[in-house]
Amino acid sequence: MSLNETDRNNWSETLMLEWSATYRYIMQTKIFNNPKLVGLIDGIMRNEADHIDISTDFLMNDFKTDVKGFRTTLFYLYQNLEFEKVANKTYGRFRRESEDEEVKAKFQELVKSEAGHVKIFRELIEAIEAGKFPVIVICPVCGWEINYGESPEEGTVLKCEKCKVDFELVEENGDWDVVRA
Ligand SMILES: [Fe+2]
Ligand SMILES: [Fe+2]
After folding, report:
1. Segment holding 125, helix H or strand E
2. In this structure, which ligand is nearest to the CA of 82?
3. CATH number of the domain bearing residue 78
4. pTM value?
5. Are residues 163 and 99 both part of a single domain?
6. Ligand 2 mean position, distance from CA 39 (Å)
7. Domain that holds residue 65
């Protein structure tokens, strides 16, 4: 199934809201010390998590990339890029709308910070799409890193430097993974 632009943008906005809701409620379960309130907030948080799953399913099914092995990574990085662009634009508007110099200055700091985040995600996506980002997988046996380098061939076998087990690089549903060779 593919989404039209309006639905895609709206699911993306829903995901932004529901992700922020989750953090809001995680914080509050730590701040409140009344177990009745903590339980209630926790219940709401679980429900928001369902909303995250629904939004993610729609967006993920619609997400296409030709880049081998980085499907899930790119999906989330694009979500991050979109979010940071919105944050950057929104805080710029808040800065312009304020008549208080201190508030303006704080929003200006946020604008700069979010602009930095936009740059980080944009460059990361560009590097991955250009095949210039290393494929490094956490060893499933010992937790060390197995580095297949940039743009590796599927089927490459490498030995984990620490546990000495051989692992073959495979692509599973668009994502790099390793299996014991
Ligand atoms: Fe940010
Ligand atoms: Fe290992």
Report:
1. helix 101-129
2. 1
3. 1.20.1260.10
4. 0.92
5. no
6. 40
7. 5-129
